[in-house]
Every structure is written in C-alpha cells, then in structure tokens.
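Subject: Lipocalin-like domain-containing protein structure
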Amino acid sequence: MKTDAIIHALAGVYNLVNMTTQIDGAPAPELAAGKWTGQLIYTKSAYMSVVFTTYAMEDLPNNGEGLSWPPSDDPALNPGWAIVAKNVLAYGGPFSIDPAYPASRTSGGVIHGPLHVKSAPMLSATDQRRNYTVVRGSGKDAQTYLSLIVRNDTLGRQATLLWVKVSD
C-alpha cells in the first residue's frame, strides 16, 4: 500500500483515552498513574504534534492562580511553573511510515521526526518510532481508535497509548 494512502487514513485529531506501561513485561501502573490527558494530531501533509499533561489545577499552588502567559518574573510563582514543566510532554514535526514494518491503513509503524518542536531536551535529534493499530467500531455512532506502542528497549519499557479519533 502506498504510504500517502496510509498517512491520509491516519490523519485526524485524537484524544488520549488510556495509557498502560510495562517494565520487562511486568505491569508498571505507577508510570501510567495520574490524570494523563493528551491530544495527537496527524495531518494529511505528514506533520504531527502531540501534547501530554498529567497535572490538575488542584495540584498547583493556589489552584494555578497567577500562572498566566507570558510567565511573570514573580519568584513566588516558580513552584507552580515547575509542576507544569515537569508534567507536560509535547513535540511536533513531520511523520512518516516506518519501512521496517509491513504497513496498511490499520497496522504498521510510524516515525515521528525529525522533531522541530520539543518540550524535553532528550527529544533533540531523535526519531520517535511507534507501532500502530487502528480499530474502527461498527454501527451508526462507531468510533475509531488508534493504539500506539512505544518501546524503550534500553530501559526495558513499553507503553501502550489508546487514542480515540475526534475529528478528521
């Protein structure tokens, strides 16, 4: 199948439904714990962006009061901004279909990168490889789900992220 057809099939806006994590094959719920939210966008022109957060306003000092953009120079707000920075992961750039895997509209591999925008220095000059599976429900109000598997063989970790498509 042509990669353009696969990219067009993946294109859309997805919201994070669930995340599970394993270390050396054993469940690691503490790594997936928290109030994870996220949004993933794939475009038909082969660009992507993703953002994850795992904080809630009630986790911030004074429920986030005073944390506005652009940030103020008030050092009293630094603890709140530290929580935000520690609990947000975002990156964006082109994406492509990974030639290392047989690919179709419903399964294969994607490469996020090279990344143009990233919130964590560790993402500099990296490609983020993911295996994907697309499942479409049936019926009138059926939803489309995207499962992405993220592996870090060096650390023995694997995360499975389940996304629901909310827009084409």
